């Protein structure tokens, strides 16, 4: 199988990169594409943005923005915190790279999501404890998350507090970083 470094590298998003590349990025969803152009993409109080850059063309292939949160459930009608979570605020792949099959239905989006999960595991091991990854999936991203082990929150009677842009819709999902045996 091809290594991610054979195709792209993932780096923190900076103002210099935003000025150079953000206007070229188009994932097909204006709201998600425009996030890279916004000041929020560089605001550490909202989340940290990482981009994947093509080694060949120096074009932004995709990006994700992560922040911290938690999952809770109700117990005797009271909210109970189940564990900390890293929340994926935004995740997107440029149209030119969408559905690009790398190996046996393994796509660029899978590689970028894998990078995100590996980054979360590193953060978890070295900096901040957490038990879950959460997100609000668009209809277009739903299959990506399902095939990578994410589950719908509604099925488990659990909740998280969505960010402002996620309140209008999407499927709330989670990925458990460890399962009980």
**How much is the radius of gyration in Å?**
16 Å
Mean pLDDT over all positions: 87
Q: Are there runs of 5+ residues with pLDDT below 50, and where?
A: 1-5
Helix and strand content put the structural class at alpha+beta
> Can you give the helix content as a percent range?
10-25%
Q: How much β-strand is present in the residues?
A: 25-35%
Counting H and I runs of at least 4 residues, what is the number of helices? 4
N→C terminal distance: 30 Å
General form: globular
In total, how many beta strands? 8
Largest sheet: 8 strands, mixed
Order of helices and strands: EHHEEEHEHEEE
Can you characterise this structure?
The protein is α+β, with helices and mostly antiparallel strands and 181 residues long. Helices cover 21% and strands 33% of the residues. The protein contains 4 helices and 8 strands, in the order E-H-H-E-E-E-H-E-H-E-E-E. Strands 1, 2, 3, 4, 5, 6, 7 and 8 form an 8-stranded mixed sheet that branches. A hairpin with a 2-residue loop joins strand 3 and strand 4.
């Amino acid at each position: 199988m091809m290594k991610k470094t054979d195709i792209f590298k993932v780096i923190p998003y900076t103002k210099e990169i935003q000025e150079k590349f953000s206007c070229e990025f188009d994932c097909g969803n204006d709201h998600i594409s425009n996030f890279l152009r916004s000041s929020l993409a560089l605001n550490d109080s909202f989340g940290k943005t990482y981009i994947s850059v093509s080694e060949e063309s120096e074009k932004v292939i995709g990006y994700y923005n992560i922040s911290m949160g938690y999952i809770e459930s109700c117990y005797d009608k009271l909210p109970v915190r189940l564990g900390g979570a890293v929340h994926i605020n935004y995740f997107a792949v440029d149209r030119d790279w969408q559905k690009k099959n790398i190996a046996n239905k393994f796509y660029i989006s899978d590689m970028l999501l894998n990078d995100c999960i590996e980054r979360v595991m590193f953060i978890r091991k070295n900096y901040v404890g957490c038990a879950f990854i959460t997100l609000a999936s668009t209809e277009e991203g739903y299959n990506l998350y399902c095939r990578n082990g994410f589950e719908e929150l509604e099925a488990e009677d659990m909740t998280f507090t969505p960010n402002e842009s996620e309140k209008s819709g999407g499927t709330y999902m989670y990925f458990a970083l460890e399962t009980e045996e």
